[in-house]
Design goal:
Elements: H1 23-33, H2 38-49, H3 57-80, H4 109-130, E1 140-144, H5 164-172, E2 186-190, H6 191-212, H7 217-223, H8 236-239, H9 249-265, E3 268-269, H10 274-300, H11 327-344, E4 350-352, E5 355-360, H12 362-367, E6 372-373, H13 374-379, E7 387-388, H14 395-403, H15 410-417
Antiparallel strand pairs: 1-2, 3-6, 4-5, 5-7
Helix pairs in contact: 1-2, 1-3, 3-4, 3-6, 4-6, 6-10, 7-9, 10-11, 11-14
Length: about 425
Amino acid sequence: MKRFYFWLLPLIAFILAGTPARADTATATQALFSAKSVADRDSAIEELENADPQDPLVPYALGAAGFFRSLENLATALNRHGFESPQSFMLPLLRLPVPPRAEPEPLTYEGFRAILVEFRDGMEAAAAQLDTVPAGADIGVVADLTKLGIDLDGDAAIAPTESFAAIMAAMSGRGADPSTPAPDLVFRFDRADGYWLQGYANFLVAQADFWLAHDFQNAFDGSFHMFFPRSGLPLQQALVPTPEDAQSSIFMSEWRLADFVSFIHLVNWPVVEPERRQAARLKLLEMIRLSREDWKAIRAETDNDREWLPGPQQKGVNPLTGLEVGEEQVAAWLDALQMAEDLLEGRVLLPHFRIPTKGINMKAFFDAPQTFDLVLAITGPGMVPYLENGTLITAEDFSRIRQQFGGAGFLSFALWFN
């Protein structure tokens, strides 16, 4: 079975739970995850907002709904301005398979920042809601990812092509293969998966905060026409190809490569909101904490019922990822979490190939931020302000962790594990 390669796995985690609960709560939750339109979904959310707040299903469902809405608001905002996804692993926030729009609205730098702020604040609210779910709550619901989705184009309907399964296929570049039977993507999401979703919400908030901490208008003005080719950006008339040129795949690949190089060159961003870069580090630390809570809850499970993220005791290959979890992977993942925490807290230093005797203090990188220049960070000069003497992470440390994940690779598991 083909494995999906994806950055936005959290999209599929809009799955809402139901345990023995009041009838109206269970009914509203069912309506929420079976909605075929935005109006039906929003009506179910309103019912849940008026349900018994002591029922753990309520904050779990509302937190997941908030995550879902934030992704949808991002997608529809991008669609409104004629977004075309670059499908770049370097830009995970901009990988949503938003459909084309015939007449895009103009976009400004300030407008794009506002889109990021709305997305970031929605994700933070979703994480806060999920944080109120009791640790020992008995939660679980069966949901089919081929029937759940988000409105990508703002038409207020949730079409089959907007299902989580279809979105994942598009993001992986796999697309629909009519000759291959579709996998059974029915999962039962439980309390552990709430930690997983909350962790991903914090990860996305950290990404948005990093962007918003900086003034990236030069990059926007000089290269964002590759994302929004018909939204009136400064260089659209000079650099966006004509419809005739766009018919050539060779020309388009060269055009996109040129714009991507321009974007990399223009990542020289002054810090304008340093508190956001500081907050990004704290959100990443919270993601690490939640991942540990997730695995603690997973390993305490005694069932094996269509698990989204199974523990070693829950045998079977996941139908979405094609992966099976063993003790080696869990142990290596917990080691990776510890390494990441040590880096973010400055207890160990990140090595740089240009600098053999010192390492980068990542806590200082976030907490005492200076202009972020991507090229100079890669080549060395941009990291000099954060260099210190101390214990460095070694290549052997990284290699030891990677080896535990076998042929599937660390990255495939990491995107799934969170």
